């Protein structure tokens, strides 16, 4: 569920993706060779199911103008607060779909920009740009105390 929440706009959408993901897991269980962990194999299926959901809903925007995006976070000073995982998840969910997808795939899942480009049908440069924009925007939302 945690993997799917990072890619979805809300809890209900994530529940649908988890359900579809487990259908895919059970339909393809015979393809699991046991060479890696079952957890990693299931995670990959969940990520791919979430990406399919994004493509299906045509929500992935390859280029988003930062000036036109409004983020609906309550005014708060996050710098001094200790973050819980759920707080960080909520902040990541406010990113536009394109930013959020590339950020999750690169920073959290560990895919290269070339792999992301291939998965999403975008160029490697677009992946790098979306990641950079996501990072920049997250830094504005979560000011890091560099002391």
Q: Would you report the number of β strands?
A: 0
Per CATH, what is the topology of the largest domain? Answer: Arc Repressor Mutant, subunit A
Helix coverage percent: 55-70%
CATH superfamily of the largest domain: Winged helix-like DNA-binding domain superfamily/Winged helix DNA-binding domain
Q: How many helix segments?
A: 7
The helix/strand series, from N terminus to C terminus, equals HHHHHHH
Which characteristics define this entry?
7 helices; single chain; globular; 61% helix; 147 residues; Arc Repressor Mutant, subunit A
Describe the structure.
This protein has 7 helices and no strands. The protein is an all-alpha fold. The longest helix has 19 residues, at 38-56. The chain has 2 domains: 1-59, RNA polymerase sigma factor, region 2, helix turn helix motif (Rna Polymerase Sigma Factor, Chain: A), CATH 1.10.1740; 68-147, Arc Repressor Mutant, subunit A, CATH 1.10.10.
